[in-house]
Amino acid sequence: MLFGKILRSKYAHARVMKIDTSKAEALDGVMAVITAKDTPRIKFGFMKDNLPLKEEKVLSCRDEIAAVAAIDEQTAARAIELIDVEYEKITPVFDPLEAIGSGAPQLHEEADKNIAKISFSFRAGNPEAAFSRSDTVCLENTFKVHFMTHTALGTMGSLASYDSNGILTIWANTQAPFMYLKDLAEALGIPGEKIRVIQPFIGGAFGRGMDLYPIDVIAALLSMKTGRPVKILLSREEDLSYSPTRQPAIIKLKTAASKGGQLLARKVEVFLDVGAYVSWGAFDARVMMATASGQYRVENVQFDAWPIYTNNPSSGTMRGAGNPQINFAIESQMDMLAEKLGLDPIELRVRNANKPGDVTSQGMKISTCAMEETLRLAAKEIGWKGRGKEGKNRGIGFSTLFHVAGGARVYRSDGCGAMIKIDDFGKVTIFTGASEIGTGSDTSITQIVAEELWIPLSKIELINKDTALKPWDVGIHASRTTFIGGNAALRAARDAKKQLLRLAAKDLGEDPSNLEIRNGEIFSLSNPRNRVDYAKLLRRSHFNREGTMIMSSSFFDPPTEMSDPETFIGNISMTYGFGTQAVLVEVDNETGKIDVLKVIAVHDAGRILNPNGAEGQIQGGIVMSLSYAMVEQLILEEGMVMNPSFADYKILTSMEIPDIKVSFVGEPDPSGPFGAKGLGEHGCIPTAAALSNAVYDAIGIRLFELPLTSDKVLQAVLNSANAR
Amino acid sequence: MLFGKILRSKYAHARVMKIDTSKAEALDGVMAVITAKDTPRIKFGFMKDNLPLKEEKVLSCRDEIAAVAAIDEQTAARAIELIDVEYEKITPVFDPLEAIGSGAPQLHEEADKNIAKISFSFRAGNPEAAFSRSDTVCLENTFKVHFMTHTALGTMGSLASYDSNGILTIWANTQAPFMYLKDLAEALGIPGEKIRVIQPFIGGAFGRGMDLYPIDVIAALLSMKTGRPVKILLSREEDLSYSPTRQPAIIKLKTAASKGGQLLARKVEVFLDVGAYVSWGAFDARVMMATASGQYRVENVQFDAWPIYTNNPSSGTMRGAGNPQINFAIESQMDMLAEKLGLDPIELRVRNANKPGDVTSQGMKISTCAMEETLRLAAKEIGWKGRGKEGKNRGIGFSTLFHVAGGARVYRSDGCGAMIKIDDFGKVTIFTGASEIGTGSDTSITQIVAEELWIPLSKIELINKDTALKPWDVGIHASRTTFIGGNAALRAARDAKKQLLRLAAKDLGEDPSNLEIRNGEIFSLSNPRNRVDYAKLLRRSHFNREGTMIMSSSFFDPPTEMSDPETFIGNISMTYGFGTQAVLVEVDNETGKIDVLKVIAVHDAGRILNPNGAEGQIQGGIVMSLSYAMVEQLILEEGMVMNPSFADYKILTSMEIPDIKVSFVGEPDPSGPFGAKGLGEHGCIPTAAALSNAVYDAIGIRLFELPLTSDKVLQAVLNSANAR
What we know:
The structure is a homodimer.
Chain A: E1 2-8, E2 14-20, H1 22-26, E3 30-35, E4 57-58, E5 64-70, H2 73-81, E6 84-89, H3 96-99, E7 120-124, H4 127-132, E8 136-145, E9 157-162, E10 168-172, H5 177-188, E11 195-198, H6 214-226, E12 230-233, H7 236-242, E13 245-246, E14 249-258, E15 263-275, H8 284-294, E16 300-309, E17 315-316, H9 323-341, H10 345-352, H11 371-382, E18 394-404, E19 416-422, E20 428-432, H12 441-453, E21 460-463, H13 481-508, E22 515-518, E23 521-524, E24 531-533, H14 534-542, E25 551-556, E26 576-588, E27 593-604, H15 611-630, E28 636-637, E29 640-641, E30 659-664, H16 687-699, H17 710-719
Parallel strand pairs in A: 1-12, 10-11, 13-17, 15-16, 20-21, 27-30
Antiparallel strand pairs in A: 1-5, 2-4, 2-6, 3-5, 7-16, 8-14, 9-10, 9-12, 14-15, 18-26, 19-20, 19-25, 22-23, 23-24, 26-27, 28-29
């Protein structure tokens, strides 16, 4: 195996005049040095605007210019230092609003005014009419969400091995191995069936595993050139500097409500800083749109988002996919609206809560929905007595959430396959398309199969690390895996059970409809003594003339629809999830330090299949978002990350985590496996707004820009006459 | 990973008085030393007569007494030398006829007269009456077949890794991974679902991969004790000394025929030298029985075989599983009979040839059968002009064969599973139970699927190296894999094709019955312009609301029956194979050297799916058997192999291989995949007899004991007045 290293741009915006790799090539132990001329120059990425190695122009400090494969990491690093690049600097632009202004440098030829050609404009009803009515209460604010990183403990890496049969095997920390395979095949210009993606246990992905990156294409190209496996693994510093970030944005939000507290209209304008190249991060705008049009009942909506190229690092998508960002704006303003209307913030939210049977203006069909119940229980559990009732410097804030929970058809397929084989020891092997990236989906899928067949969990093995073996799946995102992968596994298990009962019927002399399985025993419902152990039955059926063994399969793609590309109408998910979080804080107004004392989370995720796992997912989401809302921030200067280490990039650690209580309410969803809805992202969505609302309740200070660092809070206290 | 070594007995028969492992345990780098007391003492093997490590008594020089795991091979070897064992020698017995005589030491308590308790006695008709008729011609001879080794280029080995979840993964050069798994689980006393068998590419098995060996159990025990992977790999010297051998035997054969050349009766007595422990080698007697009762039409049959324990190395089964041995006896005697009757040897065989529709006295139902055609074509192709017509010292010999060719139900299941998934690039993945050990079955199974779906071979990938992934199969033996594994894959492919045509029907607006696939295009039979590329169709069906992907499966276990354990009647195979080989030799009667000038092989294996592969299989079988018949022999002294190296154990090499011409005749078999019958073992079955008959034709010398080494031939020439 060889080790690869990448030379990146010295400047955020420059012309590349000359690349001299001769000294690097001459270094002992260097097996290959590649630049753009060694690549097929096929553009790839969400908008096909990126190249694995850049030729004429670099657009960010992350931009890849050359790569080396050498016998060890040290040699590769030394070789990178030996590559000489001549640049001609170009004026950069780092602010998205400047980038769309006149006089800004144009980064991509095809992007006029640096706006990527993808529309996120939605209209419902007549928002302008609502805003201009004399009897409404209007609020208009601008919110800003910042650069944060995914903080995955496993740094980004890629290990490619191109063999003599022309098969490229790639070990990748992707969360969408089949999409990755397709994208990589296109980027390399080779047929998809020549690529095999192995997805080892992954040290966290949180959304950044959705895209293919230059590092992947480069590892493949180096392996194809050398005929040897090549591993590129980013150091922590590289990972913090060159990985995608959560999509930052400027969100202008205007809301109108009746004096009685009925939401009438929302107008949202989002300016997305996509950085140098567009990723799935830009697609966060679609999730923002769904929340803008769907969280609470609101008839008149105007939503526009613009993905804007800058010379900043490219942003990606991250857990919640835009929802934590827009939720901060919407739920901050809900809190302001309640105050302006003189309403209790719980009461305002209840009056506008989504209800079962509602269809949002984007056509999203809400089936089960316990939003109101989550509000009431969260208020009760946090001990809500009303505004300003927590005593000096203490306060409580609330926020709700609306998110897909039954898959999300954001691509032409939202499907997942499953195959089952049962051996003669009664061991059940599930081949599932579903990827496990730490969410616990392997466990929930195993549970679903164990429950349907009613056999012990220990009898089940799950296979899903290799595209050569597992059936297709679109990837783990949008909180879809237990729902979609679970439904696929459930259907395959149902077929296996049917086969099993058919065998038992013959064996026991009963009708299959009169048989059931419990704890691995198949018995007659009318004569329970007539029974047989399922593994024994399998052996009897197997070790016989014209014997049989049980195999089954299913591909589950839900009856949902992609949004119409013009109108953005379409029921993209089979069901939706809801929740309320309440945060109790104490703020030190001499230091600006926020002390989070308690978080109450009440979520509607249908039937909970794995209570520990579900609670863990919600807790993890809350911790991630508290960290997002309070401390995490990539500091950029001239497009370069200035704090690429965990010494300088602060994250909340265990000592700083408050008491968190998680409860689940709501009905089993008829479309979910055993009634389950998705919840993987839900915990992280409402936390920032709830925190900010709690700070306001505590000290009367409202901040419109994340994170709520102590210095920012303190500065606001000093600036404000309002502060208590 | 640690390296394991095994201490074996110094004597062929002894009591173990004391084992002192203290010095070995004290050696630096030694991680574990185990003896019988560290094992669960569970007997295993074909007759459950063996222990992984022996405690009180050793019965052969191969017997395992202790084992070591150390950080490297050198340390392990050194530790083995440091183990002190005190023995008390017992009189050994090496001759099977002596072993059943009075006064012989008894090796196993449960085996009276050293005869293993397994019956191989078959009767049909009234052979004694036929023998005593006055108008018959009778012949009675004793043939002896010897110890040979499988000569697999990959030596025996086992790599076991027991993990912290209690899962034992074992890399094994087995040819029956699921049987191996079951046997290993029983030998270790752990549940089968805790074991995963990985079968890497194997450097030859030829039958010895049918059994579980002490080496496998020892590797597992060492890994379980150390918690680390442990690899034991035999050196060439160990492999030749301690691996199983082809089943040696003394065969007494009596045949009666009418003066007109009709076979009337056969009486066969076989004394099998099984060595110290019984393996699948003893089961060779069942194949011998089938040949004795089924090769040619013969009504009256008496067959008895006795598996006899001796202090020799344990014998195993080997390609042909007893048939090359019994064929040598039967076809030598057919030649003698023809001479005695004054008939041409071809003519005698044609008069008694099996025919389609025949049922043998054991109940084996012959479907397709071109035995007569193989005889006539072989005679023609070798240029047969009659006995003694080849000139001085030259001669031609013939031999035919009868063997299973449609599976062989020698175990309660003869089944194999297959699963297929097709991805959206049109790539077809087959998970097959069938094991590839160098026979080309991976290719033939791939061909079968490609043919059924009519797509290019390059679009197909086959998965079958891991019991965790592949469906069950009984193992590769009895020339069954293309037939059984092929039928399973064909049925799964038919289901996949049905699904594909159903999708196409919807897409093209046609009835599925009006559609066909050619070269990956699905088209309307009535309007061939109405067509669609199958991969495009798959993508269209996949990337759609409620999309689909194709998965299918099949378990094929033939409608055959195990022989009745008392009467030995039962149609164990769906079809049978036939063939004739003709050998032209020149014998130097001054040196005894046999020069093989030409071999003609004409086989009936139904439709040949892969002409190159089939010819290669037949050629390989012929070479193996020429080597068996002419030079290969393990020389034993006091139960110890005296020639354990390729310097002293002679095999034929490429310079000594004659011209071989292979032809295939016969009809496609209705039960085979696309008409194929099995042929993997067939090439090696008739060669020895044809060679011996050719030597007789050349110089008038008949030998009754293999191998026909130069010294043996020369001695016979010197002893014989007959020799020309």
